[in-house]
Amino acid sequence: RDTLLQVLCLSAFLSLPHARAEPIRYSVAEEGESGSVVANVAEDAGLAPAQLSARRARLASEDGRQHFRLDRGTGRLVVAERLDREELCGQSATCTLPFELLLANPLQFFRVEVAVEDINDHSPAFPEEQVTFKILETSNPGSRFPLEGARDLDVGSNSIQAYSIAPRNEYFSVSFGSRSEGDKYVELVLEKPLDREEEAEVGFSLIAVDGGSPPRSGTTQIRIVVLDVNDNAPVFTQKLYVGQVLENAAEGSVVLSVVATDRDAGPNGEVSYQFSQAVGQSHSSFAIDAVTGEIRLTKPLDFEAAENHELSVRATDGGGLSAMCKVLVEVVDVNDNAPEVVVSSFSSPLPENALPGTVVALFTVRDRDAGANGKISCALEDQLLFSLRPAYKNYYELVTVSTLDREETARYTLAVTAADAGSPPLTTTQTFTVDISDVNDNVPVFNQTSYTMYVRENNVPTVLVGAVSASDADEGPNAKVTYSLAPAHPAERPPCSCISVNSENGQVFVLRPLDYEQVRQIEVLVSASDAGTPPLSANVTVRLVVVDENDNAPLVLYPSQDSSPASSELVPKSSEAGYLVTKVVAVDADSGQNSWLSYHLLRATDPGLFAVGAQSGEVRLRRPVTERDAVKQKLVVLVRDNGQPPLSATAALSALLLNDFSDVHLPHSSLATEDEGAFIARKVCKSKELKGGHVLYGTGNLQSGLADAAAAGTLPHAYCYEISLTTGSGNSEFKFLKPILPSLPPQHSGMGRGTGDEQEFSRGPVTMEDVAPDSPGTLSAEQFNSLSFN
C-alpha cells in the first residue's frame, strides 16, 4: 500500500503544470470528532467521486501528518483526528493546515488549506492562585500596582476581554489594556488612600473573563498588606531586556543581567530579583541571581524547539515595593541539524524501455535550522543516466535522462546527497536502489551461423543427429527459448516431414530411414522463439548430410548377364600377350570408397591364359595362345566394391580361340559342346568396282552364316565389328575380326588390323540404340543385316 501511495504522489507531481493556482480553502472548528465532514473536496475541485478511486487520489502534507482523510467514495474531506488549535498553532492569530490532493492518470494535484477555527475551550488562568501586595499606607490615590495578567490559550474573541474585582471595594479598581509595544497589562489602581490603623489588610478576588459564548473566567486572590512608609519602588533601567545566546551554549552560561534601583535607603532600598511565575515554562531553562540580577542557563536550548524565550522579572525592595520588566532571550541558530530527505514516492523496478524523463522518485528536503543553515542543495552522485529536477517548492524529481538497457546494467544504486549551507555544512545521503525490469528487446541468437549434421543412411527411426542451441539476453519468459521447424522457402512448401526438433532443448531427430541413393542432403530452417509479448524469433539453416552405407552391390553392365545363352568373345590364336579380349564394365550406386570397384579373375578354363585389370576390368591375354589351349574358354570375373564389409557381383563370359575367320564355318560341335554358335557377319558394300583382286564372298553362304550366328546369340549387343576379307578366300575365312565398344575409351576397341593385301571394311560406332532393346546381349540377323559397312 505504501508503494501505491508513493506512486500516486509521484504521478501527481509529474503534472505540476496542471496544478490549480489558488488553493481550495476550508475552515473547521477545533476539537471536532474524528470523521467529521469538512467539505466535499471532489466537488470543489471539479472531480467526480468515481475519479478519486480510479485515479488513486490521496492527501499529502509536508510534515507527513495526516490531520484529514479523503473518502474516495463520496469525495468528502473528513477529520482524521481530534484537532487542538492551541497544540497545532499556539497563540498564532491564524491556524492554517496546508496539504495537497494528489491524483494520478493523468497526474494532477490541488492545494488545500484548512483554517482551524478557535472555540472557547480554555478558561483564563492566572499564574498564581494568590498574589500579595505590600503597599505603603502613604501611597497616593491613583497609584498603580502591576499584575501578571491571566493567560487564555484561546485567541480572538475567545481570549480575555475583561477583568473585574469581587467583591467590589472602595480602595481598588482594576485597569487593563495594551501598550504601544503591543504588550497587555493589568494593574490595580488605588482609588482611596489606605489607613493601616483602620485596615491592615485588604483582600478580594480578581476575575478575568474571556469573550466566548458562554464566557469562561479565571480567578486569583489578591491580598493587600498595608505597610508603613516606603515611598519609592524599584525602577528597572529598561522596560525590555533583549539577549542572544547560541543554542549550543553550555549550561551555566550567562545570558544577560537586569538592573533595578530604589531611591530609598536601608532595607527599603535593597532590591531582590526573581522570575514572575508565568503560565509558560520558559523560565525553567533559566535561573536569576536574586542579588545581582544575572540570568544564566540551567539547561541547553534548542532553536528548533523555540526560537526565543520571554521572561518576566520582578524587582522588590525591602519595603515590599516592586517593579517588573520583560526579558526576551533570542536563541541563535547553530547548524546542528542535518538535512532530511522525505521520499514521497519511488518506482522500482523500472522497465528498461522507460522513456527519458521518466520520474523514478519524488522527494522533499527540509532542514530544521534557519538561515543559511537551513538552505539546502541536492546533488546526484556519478550518474549519466539519471538526474535531479526541481519540482515544486522543496520537492525534487529523480528522472531518467537517457535510455536504459537491463542487459548492460540490471540495477542502479543512486546516491542523492542533500547539503545545507552551514559552516561546516551538514549532509544527508539518501540511496535509491533502482531495479531495471526486463523488456523483450533481444532476439534469440544461435551459437552457430549454420549447422551441419550427419546421419547414416538406413538409420533407425527417431535417431538423434545433433542439437541446435540459441540464447536470449533477456530474462524470465523473455529469455525462454523454444525451437520449431520454420516453413521452407518458398513459404508454400511445408517443413520436411522426416526431421523433428525438440521444442525444449533443440535436439534434432530423423523420424524415418533415409536412402543415400534417393536423397543425399536435406536443408531445413529451425526457428528459435522466446516467450515474450510479442515473441521474437530467429532462424538458422540446418543441413542434414546423409552418409552413404555400403548397401548396394556392384552392377555388371557388360557383358550383360541376363542374355541366354551368354555371348562369346572371338580371340585370334595369333594374338600376343596383352591382347585385349574384352572389358568388364560395372557400376556401384553407392558413393566414395563404397563405389570403388576392383576386378578379379574368379574362375577360368585356363587361369594362366587370362589376366584381369584390377582397376580397369580389362580382360587380356596373359600369354600367347597355343595349340594346346581349348577353343572355348569360360571365365568368371569377380567385381568387388571397397565397402566394409565389401559387396560383390560376378560376370560370366566366354571366349573362342580361332585360327582365322574361316573357323566360324566349323561345325558347331567342333567349336563347342554346348548350344553355342559361332560369330558370323555379312559384308555389305556400296556399289563400286573391286580392286586389287579383292573379291566378295558369296552372299548366299554369308547370309546363311549370319542367320546361324544370330540364332546362336553370339553377338554382344554393345559391339560393332570391322571385317576384312582376302581375295581368293575359297573357304570364306575371316582374316580379321575387331569388336568396337563405343561407350568405352578407344583402347578398349583395338584388337589389331589386317595386313598385306587385305581389304579392310569398317563402319562407325554402334550404340545400344542401334539394336533392338528386346535382344539383350546379342544381335539378331535382321539387326546385323541392317548394319552398313564402308
TrEMBL record:
InterPro entries from the UniProt entry: Cadherin-like_dom, Cadherin-like_sf, Cadherin_C, Cadherin_CS, Cadherin_N, Protocadherin/Cadherin-CA
Gene3D superfamilies: Cadherins (2.60.40.60)
Biased composition, class Polar residues, residue ranges: 777-790
GO BP of this protein: homophilic cell adhesion via plasma membrane adhesion molecules
GO cellular component: plasma membrane
Chain positions covered by the region annotation Disordered: 745-790
GO molecular function, one term: calcium ion binding
One matching Pfam family: Cadherin
Domain Cadherin: 20-126, 127-236, 237-341, 342-446, 447-556, 571-669
Secretion signal, residue range per the UniProt entry: 1-21
Compartment(s) of residence: Cell membrane
Its membrane topology: Single-pass type I membrane protein
Keyword Ribonucleoprotein (UniProt): no
Alphabetical keyword list: Calcium, Cell adhesion, Cell membrane, Glycoprotein, Membrane, Repeat, Signal, Transmembrane, Transmembrane helix
PANTHER family: CADHERIN-87A, PROTOCADHERIN BETA-1
Function: Potential calcium-dependent cell-adhesion protein. May be involved in the establishment and maintenance of specific neuronal connections in the brain.
Protein name: Cadherin domain-containing protein
